[in-house]
Amino acid sequence: MSVYDFIMKDAEGNDVNLADYKGKVLLIVNTATGCGFTPQYNGLEDLYEKYKDQGFEILDFPCNQFGNQAPGTNAEITEFCTINFGVSFKQFAKIDVNGANEAPLYTYLKSQMGGLLGSNIKWNFTKFLVDREGKVVGRFASNISPE
């Protein structure tokens, strides 16, 4: 099993097969628009602009599980990120990253790196780094900037 085995909904409700990202380096992030870490969108966009031509992608999964900090619709979240941070990387539909309704992708991500920081996601802007072969090679807490 790998990240390429998952199909996720994008912000417009379309299915996105993560196998489409084979051969790319991925940074998978659970985000929120009303969080103290929301300014990290600037760093994420800078990172994306710097490395996208070298096969780097950011997959943004808004999550409202932490302090109700992503209360908007998918369209509202996308608009907020575009207007305030110029986000141009792929944004997905809002998901849960913990608990009974957590997205299977996050169950997988956590199983690959859980031993380092515990299995549950602690807060918004937790980042998972995936190499070009689809292996999860890093997990970074919210307080670690994208840079």
Helicity level: 25-40%
Rounded average pLDDT: 93
Extract low-pLDDT stretches. none
Q: What's the story with the biggest beta sheet?
A: 5 strands, mixed
- By CATH, the superfamily comes out as Glutaredoxin
Radius of gyration: 14 Å
Task: Please tally the β strands and state the result.
Answer: 7
Q: Any idea how many domains?
A: 1
CATH class: Alpha Beta
Distance between the termini: 29 Å
What string gives the helices and strands in order? EEEHEHEHEE
What best-fitting shape do the alpha-carbon axes yield?
globular
Total count of helical runs of at least 4 residues: 3
Largest beta sheet: strand ordering: 5-4-3-6-7
Structural class: alpha/beta
Strand-residue fraction?
15-25%
Question: Any overview of this molecule?
Answer:
The chain is α/β, with parallel strands linked by helices. It has a single domain (3-140), classed as Glutaredoxin, CATH 3.40.30. The protein has three helices and seven strands. It has helices at residues 40-51, 74-85, 104-117; strands spanning 7-9, 15-17, 25-31, 56-62, 90-91, 127-130, 136-140. The strands form two sheets. A five-stranded mixed sheet has the order 5-4-3-6-7. Strands 1-2 form a two-stranded antiparallel ribbon. The mean pLDDT is 93.
Key features of this structure:
Glutaredoxin, 21% strand, 147 residues, 3 helices, alpha/beta, globular, single chain, five-stranded mixed beta sheet, two-stranded antiparallel sheet
